[in-house]
Amino acid sequence: MIRPGVQDVVSQAKKLLVDSPFPELHAVDVDQQGEKVRLKGEVRTYFLKQLAQETVRSATGGIEVENELLVALRRRVH
Length: 78
Description:
Shape: globular
Structural class: alpha/beta
Helix content: 25-40%
Strand content: 15-25%
Distance between the termini: 53 Å
Number of helices: 2
CATH architecture: 2-Layer Sandwich
Oligomer: single chain
Largest sheet: 3 strands, mixed
Number of domains: 1
Order of helices and strands: HEEEHEE
Strand order of the largest sheet: 1-2-4
CATH class: Alpha Beta
Number of strands: 5
């Protein structure tokens, strides 16, 4: 059973990411999967992956956060 208010949590989590000073987090997709909040998308660093997770965790009120963000390390071309 899904806890009441999960959709509000998803909306709040999306807003926190959009309001982040890190533009890359603005494109992270947040949705509900059962009783979990799921993050999907791609970021450049593990720091941004963790930052997105912790930002969303602050909005979940104890609901599990499933972080499916991919870290796409881009190589520098000289």
